[in-house]
């Protein structure tokens, strides 16, 4: 199954807001529909957003206003703007050239996820590994296989995976809804963990490595990822557990010198005070809702990309 693809003149993507209850493919024909899908997280995950950005330029048909709106739909994930730029660079050559560039972004992502899975599995030492992860970094976050969860899949295929401890991941429970769904389809042993329990379990010695994805990696190695990643990095350092970031080269933003320059998206009140339309906090309660945090490079054991292993 592909999370996002170009099919008969339109973008087709999994509506991730309906998982795990329903597996529904959306057919997107306009930039406005794609921007809405991006903003409401029907499509999400840095690599998938890169592909969405590239394919969206095809839908924009050269309109600079639509391309600019698409590029700015999510501020933290650098891959969205990167994907838009890859396809938009071919606008002078015409629509077919733009489509070819967008499909190359898609195909390169598939190849990159396979390569990251191999590199990450090679990096980790030991058999029957217990892996902790946050958010969703599988095929749903890319086109196929994924980043950090792609490493998990390779470990599982090699018979080296004992168990995955998946954090539920506030505010939209992407770990609970999406990661566990993917792990079940993979046949990988797993248990779900409350976000706040992650560092405690690291301290108790129940984890061999922490694997996360990335939405933007600054030039110095500071990494923005789903909120909760920083707490795991602190817990991993204290416990002496490897903390490994898995992300494609396109997520490294040489134009952002360090983590303090990464814009962190605040997604407002509703995702905290309600869940699936049901209020869980008293009427009038306000929320502070940063969707991401930044892990300093000195807390990261290694960054695995499709090309190399970086030790920040």
From TrEMBL:
UniProt EC number: 5.3.1.23
Residues that hold substrate according to the record: 44-46, 74, 174, 225-226
Pathway: Amino-acid biosynthesis; L-methionine biosynthesis via salvage pathway; L-methionine from S-methyl-5-thio-alpha-D-ribose 1-phosphate: step 1/6
GO molecular function per UniProt: S-methyl-5-thioribose-1-phosphate isomerase activity
The organism's place on the tree of life at top rank: Bacteria
Presence of keyword Transcription: no
Pfam families: IF-2B
Gene3D superfamilies: translation initiation factor eif-2b, domain 1, Translation initiation factor eif-2b, domain 2
Active site feature: 215 (proton donor)
Site (Transition state stabilizer): 135
Record field: catalytic activity: 5-(methylsulfanyl)-alpha-D-ribose 1-phosphate = 5-(methylsulfanyl)-D-ribulose 1-phosphate
Keywords: Amino-acid biosynthesis, Isomerase, Methionine biosynthesis
Protein purpose: Catalyzes the interconversion of methylthioribose-1-phosphate (MTR-1-P) into methylthioribulose-1-phosphate (MTRu-1-P).
Family from the record: Belongs to the EIF-2B alpha/beta/delta subunits family. MtnA subfamily.
Official protein name in the record: Methylthioribose-1-phosphate isomerase
Gene for this chain: mtnA
